[in-house]
Structure formats: structure tokens, C-alpha cells
Amino acid sequence: xxxxxxxxxxxxxxxxxxxxxxxxxxxxxxxxxxxxxxxxxxxxxxxxxxxxxxxxxxxxxxxxxxxxxxxxxxxxxxxxxxxxxxxxxxxxxxxxxxxxxxxxxxxxxxxxxxxxxxxxxxxxxxxxxxxxxxxxxxxxxxxxxxxxxxxxxxxxxxxxxxxxxxxxxxxxxxxxxxxxxxxxxxxxxxxxxxxxxxxxxxxxxxxxxxxxxxxxxxxxxxxxxxxxxxxxxxxxxxxxxxxxxxxxxxxxxxxxxxxxxxxxxxxxxxxxxxxxxxxxxxxxx
Length: 285
Ligand code: GUN
Known about the structure:
Helices cover 42% and strands 15% of the residues. By secondary structure, it is an alpha/beta fold. The chain folds into two domains: 30-118, 3-Layer(aba) Sandwich (Rossmann fold), CATH 3.40.50; 140-263, NAD(P)-binding Rossmann-like Domain (Rossmann fold, 3-Layer(aba) Sandwich), CATH 3.40.50.
């Protein structure tokens, strides 16, 4: 069997188009969604991500502001910028691009962002609400993963989902979201014994470890759905995911490519979260 390829790129484009219509409609009622993106330092990957976010804002009609701060920025200076954005009505969502330079405390920055502007869904209160199944901002990458799973057509109810990776921003929320949809969920990580056996028992595999082709294609159960969150650049310049794609594709029922899978979805979900924040701020939903 050769898997159907779940094109995050196409699905994200379709969602952005739908969202652009919604934004046009909101603007006629005086609601102008606004996103502030703060970037500290000159990490090249972060610069690319931030540029993609700005482009998506333009495409969907969302007002965006980029605040660039030097690598030497002090913690108090960054917190002061966040506080200022917290207080501005035209800014519905705030995203501070990570990673921050080493001397800055990411947790303190996350906690400084007003929860109703936490479009990244990283604030402990946002995550806590997710844990107890309450309405919240869901962090954009796992939110995108769930859209892709829905597009694969597989119902998660009663299925075994194996999440490889236990990060706060991807692995843990993805596991909770699958649990919410009545899957049986296993979270694997670097200390898991016999990872191959765990993956082989999965109907759905979600991998977010940041290690090139760490999940071997022949571990994948025939007919499984594979969502690869990883994006790794090899020394020869190629971009690969965390899953050995070419082999996995011959066994899976559906699989996300890298690039063009989860990556574009993350940005699309950020746009959706920003519009959700604006709608809430306007008190119309
Ligand atoms: N760095 C890489 N991905 C993300 C993300 O989704 N949000 C933030 N704030 N930083 C990131």
C-alpha cells in the first residue's frame, strides 16, 4: 500500500482563504483582528518563521506588528514590551518567538502574556484549561495536527495513538487533544523502552522529537496514520522529518510530508487563534 499524502500546505491555504472571508466580514462590523510578534535576536530559523507569520497576516487581512529587539535585550525590557502590548486594544494576540537568547527566561515571558491574548496557547492557564477539557487557546502546532488527522478521515475513538515526544508545546497538548477525542494515548520519549514496539502498535503515530528520521519506516503498522511534526536539515541540505518517510509511506494509510505537512498548519492555526481572540475581545461570540 502507498499512503495518501496529507497536504498540510493545501489544507492550510484553504483554511487561510476561509479565514480571510471571515476577517472581511468582521471588519464590516468594526472588528479588526491584530497580532503582535516579538522577535529577540537574530536566529535565522526564527526570522523565517516570523516572516511566514507576517505573510499569513497580510493574506488573511489581519493587522500585524513586528517588534524586533536586539540579542542584548534585558528580561525587564522584554517584559515591559509584553506589558505594553497587553494594554493595547488593537492587539488581540501576542506571540513572542522562541527560542529566546539563553539569558532570557521563557517561562516568565509566557506568564506575562495576558491569557486572553495568548494565541500561542503556551500560558499555564491555557494549558490547564486544555487538561480539564475547557475552551482555550490550543497551541498552534498540535491544533494543526488535529486538523490534519481529521482530514485523514480516521476517527480517533477507541484507537491507539502513540505520541513520540513530550514537549509542553507539542507532544503533551497533542496527547490531550487525542484523549479528548476518546483515543487511547501513549506518550513515548527518549527513555521509552522499545520505542519500535510502541510505534508498531499504533493506529496513529504523531512524532515531534526533532531528530531526523528517528522513527523507522518499518515500525509503522500497515494502515496507520502518520503525522510528522519534525523538520530537520541534514548536512547535505535536505529537509527531512522525524519519520523515515519513504519507507513509512509504503505502510501507512496516510502520512504528512516534510516540508508541506504540519509546518504550514501551525501558521494557519495562529491566524485562527488571533481571529478567535479578536471576536472574544469584541464580545460578539
Ligand atoms: N518557535 C517555534 N515554533 C514556535 C511557536 O509556535 N511559537 C513560538 N512563540 N515560538 C516558536
